[in-house]
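for the record, two folds in this file. i put them one after another cuz i was lazy. first one right below, seq on top, structure tokens after. the second one comes after a little note so u can tell where it starts
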Amino acid sequence: MNNKIALTLDDAKIIAAASEAEARRNNWPVVIAIVDDGAHLVYLLRLDNTQFGSVDVAIQKACAAIAFRRPTKVWEEHVTDGRLRYLGLPGTLPIEGGLPIIVDGQFIGAIGVSGVRSHEDAQIAQAGLNAMLKS
């Protein structure tokens, strides 16, 4: 029996709303991208006055987080530690701000945030995940 959990549009909206609230609380202009477990875009939110370059970066962060089932901060730390070979790993993005979405041990998607400092992007993404887990 297959008991696969899927990321729904309603889930994505909950995540995005909480992430947006965190960004607005701090006056951070960002793009919030949410993808499903196949790295297909489910939801995209670009706050006013956010640089357009952050659109692709947010999507890539989300795709990298689900493709490798880990936060993008992992690769940032590897590169910072001098392990530059990770720069050549296809599909990775060594910039914090991409987090997988895990429910009952299943990877159902990911969120990527871009627009401010990478640890602030991650803070926004985490706020979205926290809201989903509470709902």
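(here's the note) second protein begins now
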Amino acid sequence: MSVTPILEPAAAYALWAANYPAHAHNPVMRAEERALLGLIPDRLEGRAVLDAGCGSGRYMLHALHRGASHVTGVDLAPAMLERAAAELASWQGRAAVELKQGQLPQLPLPDAAVDLTICGLVIGHVRQLAPALAELRRVTRPGGSILISDVHPTGHALGWLRDFKADGRRYAVEHTPHLYSHWHAACVALGLSIERVVEPMLDPADIPTGAHFDPVALDVPVALVFRLRRLSKPEGAI
């Protein structure tokens, strides 16, 4: 049995970018996206939105379709930013759209730059949760929302990989599970209020006929989705 190489995010997404569409393209992503979109306001007119770890731009597109006036995407991989630029080309002149290379926890944005921050299925690529959350908080205005999703820690415990194929070979992206206790402790320390937590399950209708997958996946949550609010100061501060 061959062993799947596990790559650091920069190397993985450089390989994956050529085949990475700007929409949820597997059952886990569809479950995650349904949950996260349910936490985004239906109308975003006048709002500045950041997609941290934007990939090929799927959440940027959702924000634009909901009327966001200014959307910024940040990603580690230049190849992913090229994909996003192609997907977003039709929006030029209709809304302010920016793409920047960067990564957590060093986002290339000033303090309190956006009203809404989205970080979809990215934070598991960061080994330390608190510094990443601190950076997402920094760029979000006081009172603003931060929507974050990750693969559920249960999947990691069951041995699931964030895998993909490139040039006919299977690879996986390095991923660190962050438990709810880690999220709670970091949010309390940083002045982030946990407003909603969603643990979506797979929809059997999303599973392709004949697909090979762990049947346990239908019985456990596959993603962990948070809506956080940036408070003016950490809880307990005077």
